[in-house]
Design brief:
Keywords: Membrane, Transmembrane, Transmembrane helix. It holds the Pfam family DUF1275. This is DUF1275 domain-containing protein. InterPro entries: DUF1275 (IPR010699). By secondary structure, this protein is mainly α. It has a single domain, classed as Growth Hormone, Chain: A (Up-down Bundle). Helix content is 76%, strand content 2%. The protein contains 9 helices and 2 strands. A hairpin with a 2-residue loop joins strand 1 and strand 2. Helix 1 packs across helix 9 and helix 3 packs antiparallel against helix 4. The chain is globular and about 75 Å long.
Length: 255
């Protein structure tokens, strides 16, 4: 049963329920990585809005070095999203079961590397910004692109501003007073209660993940990302093994 569940969760064949559940898990991971990462590198790496705003402020104040650091973070996030798109589209053309799992596997490996080598990586510089910041931004871009591709842009795991905006829209529709004279002219304004529940759940998971990630880094440091890596590996491993078995059978058949 566990194998079937994991295959359904991250495999090629998708359902709305699987998308939502995977989105919740990845939102938890994003919240934990973002909060723990802030304690590690003093930078929130899940959203680029603040980074772009900081770049504009730094340029206006003449802090060119800080502005270039922001550019390094943006390039890293962008590269992560692009890498996810490349992996997914390549796997799709190869008809792999691990169409989405490959990106999850890459994220797991990168988080493991961050957990094991983060203290040393923080001393290294790349693109005007510490390698740890670049790595976390890359991971965030990679993950956000995974769930965006899977859900056709309906679910975001790192973009809390969008979540809160969508939640506000649904709440506005929920409390809207449909006056009787409006009924004949236009349909009632009705909230999508299922989407409302999903948005609340996603926001809650990001918050809970943030608390867990911050506590984890406070008590065990960079290694707190290792359990997150193990969680992602568990999500990805079944579709990857399915592809390995298919390739092995083809090899044995033609050997």
């Amino acid at each position: 049963m566990a194998i079937l569940f994991l295959r359904r969760l991250s495999g090629r064949k998708r359902t709305s329920e699987a998308n939502q559940l995977l989105g919740l898990v990845l939102t938890f991971v994003a919240g934990a990585t973002n909060a723990g990462g802030f304690l590690a590198v003093r930078t929130y790496t899940s959203h680029m809005t603040g980074v772009v705003s900081s770049m504009a402020d730094d340029l206006a104040l003449g802090n060119v070095t800080l502005a270039l650091s922001g550019l390094g973070a943006i390039v890293s996030f962008l590269s992560g999203a692009a890498s996810s798109a490349i992996l997914i589209n390549w796997a799709r053309r190869q008809h792999l079961h691990s169409e989405y799992a490959l990106s999850l596997l890459l994220e797991a490996a990168l988080l493991l590397g961050f957990g094991l080598l983060g203290a040393n990586l923080s001393l290294q510089m790349g693109l005007f910004v510490p390698v740890t910041v670049m790595l976390l931004c890359y991971i965030m871009g990679l993950q956000n692109a995974i769930i965006t591709k899977i859900s056709k842009s309906e679910i975001r795991t790192t973009h809390v501003t969008g979540l809160v905006t969508d939640l506000g829209i649904e709440l506005g529709k929920l409390v809207y007073w449909n006056m009787e004279q409006d009924h004949t002219a236009m349909p009632k304004v009705m909230a999508n209660r299922e989407r409302l529940k999903l948005l609340i759940a996603l926001l809650s998971m990001f918050f809970v993940g943030g608390v867990v990630g911050a506590l984890g880094f406070k008590h065990i440091g960079f290694a707190s990302t290792v359990p997150l890596s193990a969680l992602l590996l568990a999500l990805a491993i079944i579709p990857v093994l399915d592809d390995v078995l298919v390739r092995w059978r083809r090899f044995r058949k033609h050997a």
